[in-house]
Design goal:
Distance between the termini: 78 Å
Mean pLDDT: 91
Helix content: 40-55%
Radius of gyration: 23 Å
Oligomer: single chain
Number of helices: 11
CATH architecture of the largest domain: 3-Layer(aba) Sandwich
Shape: globular
Length: 328
Amino acid sequence: MISHIVTATIGAALALAATTAGTGAQQDFPTKPVQLMVAYPAGGSTDIGARIVAAIAEKSLGQPIVVVNKGGAGGQVGWTELVRQRPDGYYIGFINLPATNTVILDPDRKAIFTEKDFTPIINQVLEPGVIWVRADSPYKTVHDLIDAGKKSPNTIRAATTGILSDDHLAILMTEEAAPGAVFRLVHLEGGAAQFKEIMAGNIDVAFDNVGSIMTRVKSGEVRALAVMDDVRSKFLPDVATMKELGYPTVISNSTRGIAGPKGMPEPIVSKLRDVLKKAMEDPEHVSKLENQGLAIKIMVGEEYARYFADTHAKAKRYTEWAKRRPQR
């Protein structure tokens, strides 16, 4: 009887010690560098934003924040790496919506993770989509483009930045909003490839994001036909929105936010959220991102979780449509 009591007492003491140690580790967090994963190669807009916020946030965090690039398979390599990490706050990473959503939703991708395998921490950027053409394009307006898409279906070559990217979904939205207009999809790897092909005359129109093309619009190299948002972009204030032009359902954007694997303790999430929010509100961060044409949109807590869920639901419908649509 006594031995059972002693055993139970020792077990309780060990459990208490483990709990206390775990609580202490959370309170002391971080005691070593934090890795911030970007699921794309260095030099892209997600990577640029990550390095800017990391350099500022680490001053308050008290430990270095090391940006690591895990590019491959349209972000899938990096997000797979992220969900496999221990949920202790020392490995977090950027999720890009709706790209993360469509990787999950596309059965051909065979992703090992779902939307429930992430702990959303904070969103940094919301970048509206934009429809653009070469400066000497015969399409002066969105109406010109859509009329041509109706008159000659499947002949207007429209470039995306990848299969099931936000730009791909934006083309589907445009076709849905303008029945009869059908574009010939051309999937390219990123904005640089789009610009090259547009300028070479191999592509007629590109669907991309404001930050990718802002400076080229201002230099006169290309013409922005419309911003795919319900309000005008501060970076392209003279460009009308699709809503203004009569297509209120064509709302497309790409967000870049930070998440961790599921199961992260709330004290650690809270610490990271507070430090990153402070960094994102810092004038240095604001100035540097705006110089890149990147619109800051801080979302935390329930707002960010709800945005993730809403984006997933919207992406599900268009992903299913994209899989059914013939790839011409």
